[in-house]
Specification:
2 domains, Arc Repressor Mutant, subunit A, 59% helix, 3-stranded antiparallel β-sheet, 6 strands, alpha+beta, 205 residues
Length: 205
């Protein structure tokens, strides 16, 4: 197995941004399954053991696939540089969690429906929400990355609520202004000004 073949597999894992199986790597690179497996073993030895203190990356096995990722120790910092834009409906869910934390996921399901489960998964992947088991449900809170992510220089609940309310409304207005359908709808301006922050009244269990 040549160093060049190791580098080919390394470059594919680095650029993929998702877990890859041996067959996927084989199809893309043209290498044999054995060469792919050998390359992965060499790379895991290098990143995870030999150079573990010299790199912020690691290669981990996810089921029967492999992914190159930033080590958890460095995840928060890297998120601040390349943070993705959050769509409006997900931002509203995050606002509800921030308003009511600690809040049961089951209570939020009463408010916005089954989509809460997918929203929470996405917010956790962004390291903005933390989940703890609580009986048959989960208790949700925002993480320490949350105020840094949005640049909120405050820990006061009322100031966070005000910031998020404006943030949600801003996203809604921006989406309406960029929607071709709304340009033909004379009532769209009125809908923008009537837009309100997320409902904050909790339904009791």
């Amino acid at each position: 197995m040549s160093v060049k073949e190791d580098r080919v597999v390394e470059s594919l894992l680095f650029s993929a941004g998702k877990p890859l199986g041996v067959e996927e790597i084989q199809e893309t690179t043209g290498l044999s399954p054995k060469h792919v497996t050998d390359a992965i073993e060499h790379l895991m030895q290098s990143y995870n053991l030999d150079r573990k203190d010299d790199t912020s990356l690691e290669i981990v096995k996810a089921g029967n696939k492999f992914i190159m990722q930033v080590k958890k120790t460095f995840t928060d910092k890297s998120m601040m540089v390349a943070k993705p834009e959050i769509r409006t409906d997900l931002l509203k869910t995050l606002a509800l969690i921030a308003f009511h934390q600690p809040v049961k996921q089951s209570n939020l399901r009463h408010m916005i429906g089954e989509r809460i489960y997918g929203d929470v998964d996405q917010l956790m992947s962004l390291h903005l929400v933390h989940s703890e088991p609580h009986g048959a449900t989960e208790v949700l809170t925002t993480t320490r990355l949350f105020p840094e992510y949005f640049g909120i220089d405050s820990t006061k609940p009322e100031e966070i609520r005000e910031f998020l309310a404006k943030k949600v409304i801003g996203h809604v207005v921006k989406e309406k202004q960029s929607s071709p359908a709304d340009e033909e709808d004379p009532s769209s301006d009125e809908q923008m000004t009537d837009e309100k922050p997320p409902q904050t009244q909790m339904k009791s269990e």
